[in-house]
Design a protein that fits this description.
Shape: flat
Strand order of the largest sheet: 1-2
Radius of gyration: 37 Å
Number of strands: 4
Structural class: mainly alpha
Order of helices and strands: HHEEHEEHHH
Number of helices: 6
Distance between the termini: 57 Å
Amino acid sequence: MTGSQKSRAALPLTGTRGPLVFAVVLTVFCLGGATAWSSMVQLESAAMASGVLVFGQQPQDRRASRGRGRCADLVHEHDRVEAGQVLIRLDPTVARAALDLYQGNLIASEALIARLSAERDLRDDIVFPTSLAGQTDPRATEIMAAERRVFTARREQLQGQAQILQQKKKACNSTSRSAASAPR
């Protein structure tokens, strides 16, 4: 036997049949499991659609029938109306809830802008606008306190990173000086 024949005889012949069979079995197992699972589990789904509901031959908007903000209809179809006459009385609850939501978003946005400005300008503290600092809303004080905590944490993080970089700079400078002064 020559040298190449000895090395071929020492190594076992491997084929691709084993890995391919394993891949096929694994694929069939996974797809079968997914199919079995999907046939046994009942998934609930909702379909959103707009439309008009008709009760007793009078069409009504679906949103109005759910009671979203509509309190009372003061006129009906085919009634004569005068200029300036109130047609619908709206429930103020929906408008108040939306106003409250938007005021909270405004407070949060103003506080965020103040914090980001303080970070950008490298100030020691946040200067909140007077419109925000003078509010009696408890959300404003909570949001301002939260922004101060974030400001302090980010400033400490940046200071720590700056110290680490200064130490690395000193270490690099000292190794470069020692390498330059070493005899060749």
